[in-house]
Amino acid sequence: MERLRLRLATSSSSSYTPIPAPFAERQQSRVMLQFGAYTNANRVENASRLEGMPASLEAVGSRLARAGVLDATPDSCCVNLYERGQWIPPHRDNPKFERPFATVSLRSAQRVAFENGSRRVSIVLGVGSALRVGGEAADAWLHSVPPVLDARISLTFRRLSAPTREKFRAIDTASAERKAAKAIRKREARQAKRLAKLEASDVKKQSSRSAPLDLVAAEKKASNGYVPEVEIEHVWRVYDAIAPQWHGTRYKAWPRVAAFAKEVGVVGAVVADIGCGNAKNARAICQGGATCVACDVSRPLLEIAARETKGLAYECLDADATRLPWRSGVFDAALSIAVLHHVSTLCRRRAMVRETFRVLRVEGRALFYAWAYEQREFEARSGHRFESADVLVPFHFRRHGEYYDPDASAVPDHAKVDEAKNALVLQRYCHVFREDELANLVLDAAGTPVRIDAAYYDQGNWAVAATKLAS
Ligand SMILES: O=C(O)CCC(=O)C(=O)O
Ligand SMILES: [Fe+2]
């Protein structure tokens, strides 16, 4: 008996209930091993482990159902282990179990008593017998086990009632759903954490580089080497933003530039227009039959240039004048008109001059124009007065009129609104040249012997025309 009790008690799906101390003292109750659902102080326990019955007990339960002792296959079994003298007071079986239920008696025969008011009925349960209890016997009558005469085992088979079973199934489903939802939340939280970590490391990576203002700028930076932030923000992005308005007000070549272009732009000549902007010099260059290859860093200006030069032998491409994408010695002439003053370091201005002469053939001619520090007010239409050599010059980007496109590309971060003028004020960076500075730069930085053909003041700019003397 003890061995059996231990064996069953260690079965994982069982509940072993020893007799509580006060009950044990009076020998009330018995050791119980319960499989499947059972009740404990009127609460159903283990309802979701209905499959928990050992195969041997299940076989007995099925046989009871087949024999018609039970109406359906039981899903729980309580094994009662009685020592001699142990007993159970009158009670009613928990209504959360279906009727009928059945008790199989083993080991020793035992009398059980039924009572209903003053009525009493006793039944002797023989070894191997099955007692079916249902109807009034189960609910109107109480039953009890008087002190057993000998050690005894009984097996009571029950089936959880349909509503209770349904209730527990719903609870089970809900708890499974809660569990699943919790698992999903946990997984999502983990993913969010991982993502945040990735993003943080990305931001770190980005901020450890000198942050590019936009992708185009970043791309240019990568392909052209270092471009100071001031040029990207205050030259490149400004021209990108103002391109249509810029084009609208500057569409004619300056006369002395046009004269130079005409001189060099003969049939068969190949001319470079470096920093071409909206290509206002294109006609002057190409009208004599020359072919022109132009470049600029502003895509919006290049788009205008391409549009404006349809039908001309004029090609324009996106390139930085400090790193020209052409072979050395291929051009007969080069124009660098109002470009040098937008380059913010001496090193880059020197690079631009050197590159211009590199792509020229020997005897090739170049014309440079750069904004003058010394503005001769009576000559200069701009009327600027500069305080120093490196300045920010405001450009009023009108938010109205025929050259305003509200859908045009983004304005630079530094733009300020001027409500009175209904304009955005953009600041263009300029390095303004002092007298002789441009000529000295050309002589110094050409990287090859050059001859200065002319140096003069025109349109508020210093101008230098020079010829490459050797390769
Ligand atoms: O052992 C028996 O015969 C009856 C047991 C019983 O009534 C019970 O477990 O509720
Ligand atoms: Fe009972």
Task: Please give a structural write-up.
Helix content is 33%, strand content 28%. The protein is of the alpha+beta class and 471 residues long. The chain folds into three domains: 2-160, Alpha-ketoglutarate-dependent dioxygenase AlkB-like (Jelly Rolls, Sandwich), CATH 2.60.120; 169-208; 219-468, Vaccinia Virus protein VP39 (Rossmann fold), CATH 3.40.50.150. Strands 15-14-13-16-17-22-21 form a seven-stranded mixed beta sheet, sandwiched between helices. It is rod-shaped. The relative contact order is 0.08. Bound molecules: 2-oxoglutaric acid and fe (ii) ion (FE2). 2-oxoglutaric acid (AKG) binds next to strand 5, strand 11 and strand 12.
Write a compact overview of the structure shown:
With 471 residues, the protein is an alpha+beta fold. Helices cover 33% and strands 28% of the residues. It has 3 domains: 2-160, Jelly Rolls (Sandwich), CATH 2.60.120.590; 169-208; 219-468, Vaccinia Virus protein VP39 (Rossmann fold).
Q: In percent, how helical is the residue content? A: 25-40%
Count up the domains.
Answer: 3
| Percent of residues in β-strands | 25-35%
Q: Indicate the CATH architecture of the largest domain.
A: 3-Layer(aba) Sandwich
What is CATH's topology name of the largest domain?
A: Rossmann fold
The residue ranges in which pLDDT falls below 50 over 5 or more consecutive positions are 205-216
The average pLDDT value, as a whole number, equals 86
Give the CATH H-level superfamily of the largest domain.
Vaccinia Virus protein VP39
Number of helices: 12
Distance between the termini: 114 Å
- Principal-axis shape: rod-shaped
Report the strand count. Answer: 22
